[in-house]
Amino acid sequence: MLEVKNIETLYGLIMALRGVSLQLEEHKITAILGSNGAGKSTLIKTIMGMLDDQPDKGTIELDGKRIDRKDTEDIVRMGLAFVPEGREVFNELTVLENLQMGAYTRSSAEAKKDIEWIFTLFPRLKERIKQLAGTLSGGEQQMVAIARALMMHPRILFLDEPSLGLSPLLTKEIFATIKQINQEAGTTILLVEQNANMALSVCHRGYVMENGRFVLDGTPEALMADKDVQEFYLGVK
Ligand code: ATP
């Protein structure tokens, strides 16, 4: 599966990742917790090959083969899909067209089968199949963004702050669906979240990132029992 070894990522002179190592467990959900600016998004962007000439140091391997410094396009074709923060959808396209845009690497028969499954995950999108994505609510746009990534039939799904800007109820709904995707399709998921409570409720393993480094990792139960995690991330007094 995916193995990140000791990577460093720079923005000019600023070191955003300072020696990060991570091994994703296949068919499991891994969560990365951390406050604003900890480097969580930078880690996903580095893995996806979205930052020029990064990582500066270290390696990223998929099934034992180096993928660092490859083009994003190639990385997507290897089965890695990314849902960026801020639910980017094609506003001027309908829900269905947005989903079809996600299927460019697939045959139409395969895509058709997936779309039926995706509509069981997001029945609300099925009801709005012809609606322009720009006119959907924030929560529905997040569903479109996740659904579009699923149309690629990814081996690994990267989700950057899926709960950002959503109501508590919708956040709960999105997280239940994330769990369902993992259970029904076996998709390996890496989730980056500031909402530690939600992330720890669905993940199999969690990592805590501070200032470009992992400072703690463990099972969700172990992290929830950790005094620092409780105080700084779970809001327990
Ligand atoms: P957030 O949840 O706010 O997105 P994050 O943990 O994902 O936080 P990153 O976005 O990865 O954090 O940012 C890590 C550090 O790198 C921050 O100090 C940020 O200011 C810096 N950074 C991010 N993007 C750039 C950029 N394009 N140019 C320069 N510095 C950047």
UniProtKB/TrEMBL annotation:
The text of the family note is: Belongs to the ABC transporter superfamily.
The molecular function GO annotations come to: ATP binding; ATP hydrolysis activity; branched-chain amino acid transmembrane transporter activity
Question: What's one Pfam family the UniProt record gives for this protein?
Answer: ABC_tran
Q: SMART domains of this UniProt entry?
A: AAA
**What is the originating organism of this protein?**
Desulfarculus baarsii (strain ATCC 33931 / DSM 2075 / LMG 7858 / VKM B-1802 / 2st14)
What name does this protein carry?
ABC transporter related protein
InterPro entries xrefs: AAA+_ATPase, ABC_transporter-like_ATP-bd, ABC_transporter-like_CS, BCAA_Transport_ATP-bd_LivF, P-loop_NTPase
Q: Domain of life here?
A: Bacteria
- Residues in domain ABC transporter? 2-236
SUPFAM superfamilies xref list: P-loop containing nucleoside triphosphate hydrolases
Keywords of the record: Amino-acid transport, ATP-binding, Nucleotide-binding, Transport
- A biological process term (GO) from this entry: L-amino acid transport
